[in-house]
Design goal:
β10 (197-211) and β11 form a beta hairpin. The protein has 259 residues and is mainly beta. It is built from one helix and twelve strands; from the N terminus they run αββββββββββββ. It is 7% helix and 62% strand. Residues 1-10 have low confidence and may be disordered. The protein is globular, with a radius of gyration of 19 Å. Strands 2-3-4-5-6-7-8-9-10-11-12 form an eleven-stranded mixed barrel.
């Protein structure tokens, strides 16, 4: 826990430093992210994780990013889970200082993570630590044609999420709850250069549990994201200060139940 708190403090310091440097160009975008995620039980301690995200800017007018994820989840204890899998990611041209020059650029990822659940009275907490191996594709200077180069990077992510029931001591079916999370992204290894602080996401909102396997959440999202490369025209670093809404649908299936 001390190491996780230290990571969070380092990330906060990085965020404040990122915001405090007047020489940086600041780009604010309005977000609207639609997320589906589900862990589908295939054995007593095994599940298949599926996830899809459609991210848009200027509310829903323009595409920002697309994400599709497939992985396996292993339950070690009631409190601890480990998982890993593959993510396909695609970035589009957006904002005042776009990183993508033309056609959408792809990214392939492998990931491994560990999640730890805690209960403090009515408050449920989940710590998640994730490692990512990333292959980022880029096209020619015009942004057209096929992908010409794949750059490898490493990234580590720490997320602290919270759930608080509004109608009892625990979250039950057909009940409302509050939720929040903060996630810090740190790049490391070769090809990362000065982009050690990659981004931070802070979100909170209201959730509704239809059943134990189906939830809907509507959140406010604030994202600080640092560009890997400076703006070509001014050679100044760029930081995005994005905000908007996050619509999260969680739906799990249990294939171990007998029909």
């Amino acid at each position: 826990m001390k190491h996780l708190l230290l990571t969070g403090l380092v990330g906060l310091a990085g965020t404040l430093t990122c915001l405090g440097q007047a020489s940086r160009l600041k780009d604010a975008n309005t977000l609207c992210w639609f997320v589906y995620a589900g862990d589908h039980q295939i054995a007593k301690k095994w599940a298949i994780h599926t996830e899809f995200q459609e991210r848009r800017v200027d509310w829903v007018q323009q595409p920002q990013q697309l994400l599709a994820r497939l992985g396996f989840v292993r339950t070690l204890t009631e409190r601890v889970e480990v998982s890993g899998g593959y993510t396909y990611f695609q970035s589009y041209r957006y904002g005042n200082y776009p990183e993508v020059m033309g056609r959408a650029e792809p990214e392939n990822r492998l990931y491994e993570d560990i999640s730890l659940k805690d209960q403090l009275g009515r408050l449920g907490l989940t710590h998640r630590l994730r490692l990512e191996q990333r292959w980022l594709g880029s096209r020619d200077q015009s942004g057209q044609g096929a992908v010409q180069e794949w750059e490898y990077q490493n990234r580590i992510r720490y997320q602290l999420s919270l759930e608080f029931p509004l109608q009892g001591k625990t979250i039950e079916d057909k009940e409302w709850y509050l939720n929040a999370f903060d996630e810090l992204f740190i790049g490391f290894g070769r090809n990362v250069n000065d982009n050690v602080f990659n981004q931070n996401r802070l979100s909170s909102g209201l959730g509704y549990q239809f059943t134990n396997n189906a939830k809907l959440e509507l959140n406010y999202l604030y994202q600080i994201r640092q560009h890997a490369d400076p703006d070509p025209a001014s050679s100044r670093s760029v930081v995005e200060l994005n905000s908007g809404i996050w619509v999260n649908v969680l739906y799990n299936l249990d294939f171990t139940k007998k029909q």
